[in-house]
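User: Hand in any protein.

Assistant:
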Amino acid sequence: MYFKKGFVTCGHCGDQVDLWQAALDRATRLSATGAGALVSLGAAQTTFVIPLETGKYYTVELTNYGVPADARILRRIYTGQGGDVTAMEWHGNAPPLRFPGTVLRLVGVPLGEGPLPRVDRVAINIVWVRHEDSDEWSYLVTAFESAAAGDYAPSLVFAQSAVEISMMPLIEEKLRRHASTEHVRNFMRDSLTFGHAVNIILPYLCVEAGLTRMPDVVRGALNKMRKKRNDIIHEGAKATAITAEDAMEGLCAAAFGFEYMRFVRPILERA
């Protein structure tokens, strides 16, 4: 709807909402929360409440609460609801850097003084990203994961790669219909940059097929991210100051660019 009309209709008040600006504003406002900001850009959030008893060990299977078995977990938050009990994660002597699988291993622990054991409710908040069997999606997931960890430079590199990988094979396929495989391969390798693809080739293909062009604000943000990415690659992450706001804008551009390609690809392939 956004790519067709330039807005979406609010389901509560009926207003026409600029989806790009709404997503970007919320992600930027929540950028200090890490994974929480990513919910605006396509990550999912699941919250549920369970009773825990102090001193007891629990395994909680997240698939029972709507999280897919192959989801990538970005964040877990445990909040005691009554002020008496909360949860701590139980792990071996080598805790994994990335959360593996979808099973929480928890121990109920007391909050404050008082008789033991005791039982209280604990809210569990999970931010996760869906799995998808495509090369470009795996790059976007890695970008989200890096941003959730506050590692913003590689986040932008992977985010830009996700859009590039979703776009370049389609352009190559279209060109091969009118030029030799060797000439197209050489052109793609030696001459066609990401900037040329997103600013010239893709708009031309979309207009010729009767599709709306990628919104200028999204395209502009992709160009800005490309420049940041080039600075990181050529000057190094330490020499390039990437703020949380930069990362959120880049991820927003990547998420919208990725979804735009999913919107236009089937039509362009048939055109």
About this structure: Residues 44-129 form one domain. The chain has a mean pLDDT of 91.
